[in-house]
């Protein structure tokens, strides 16, 4: 710290300690911007770039890929045989259940991103769904070319 010396009197004066700032002197921190309102309109939720289509298709592909491999391992049937022997009924039932379960939170305004954390993120679900879609198509194509079950 430094001292000031008065030239006329020769006395030293220490500067006064700075007073703590009052609440009127503290700059106000702006509040965080409000979160954008999530649209719950039917057309917005199911739009091509909306939150529902790819997520629902990915979830159905994940279930379908695992189910197709499980049935193939247990019964030795390829995907086309599974579909022709009653698989369509299971597909439609599963599609309805998963679609409704996916749409209900979206119509309530709940986003998938708000519920994800840790390893189970919404991005991880999207990538897993995309890979399952590719895997299901690759499985069907391979079995078609091969002429029988993959496994």
TrEMBL record:
Pfam families: Chloroa_b-bind (PF00504). It comes from Linum tenue. Signal peptide: none annotated. The lineage of its organism: Eukaryota, Viridiplantae, Streptophyta, Embryophyta, Tracheophyta. Keywords: Chloroplast, Membrane, Plastid, Thylakoid, Transmembrane, Transmembrane helix. PANTHER family: UPF0041 BRAIN PROTEIN 44-RELATED. Belongs to the ELIP/psbS family. GO terms for cellular component: chloroplast; membrane. InterPro entries: Chloroa_b-bind. Residues 15-27 have a biased composition (Low complexity). Residues 1-37 are annotated as: Disordered. Its main location: membrane. SUPFAM superfamilies: Chlorophyll a-b binding protein (SSF103511). This is Early light-induced protein. It is a multi-pass membrane protein. Coiled coil: none annotated.
């Amino acid at each position: 710290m430094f001292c000031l010396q008065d030239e006329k009197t020769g006395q030293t004066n220490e500067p006064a300690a700075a007073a703590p700032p009052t609440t009127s002197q503290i700059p106000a921190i702006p509040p965080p911007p409000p979160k954008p309102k999530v649209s719950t309109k039917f057309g917005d939720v199911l739009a091509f770039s909306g939150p529902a289509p790819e997520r629902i298709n990915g979830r159905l592909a994940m279930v379908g890929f695992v189910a197709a491999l499980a049935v193939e391992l247990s019964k030795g049937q390829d995907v086309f045989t599974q579909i022709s022997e009653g698989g369509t009924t299971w597909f439609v039932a599963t599609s309805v259940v998963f679609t409704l379960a996916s749409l209900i939170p979206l119509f309530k305004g709940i986003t998938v991103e708000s519920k994800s954390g840790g390893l189970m993120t919404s991005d991880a679900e999207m990538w897993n769904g995309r890979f399952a879609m590719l895997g299901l198509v690759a499985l069907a194509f391979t079995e078609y070319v091969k002429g029988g079950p993959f496994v």
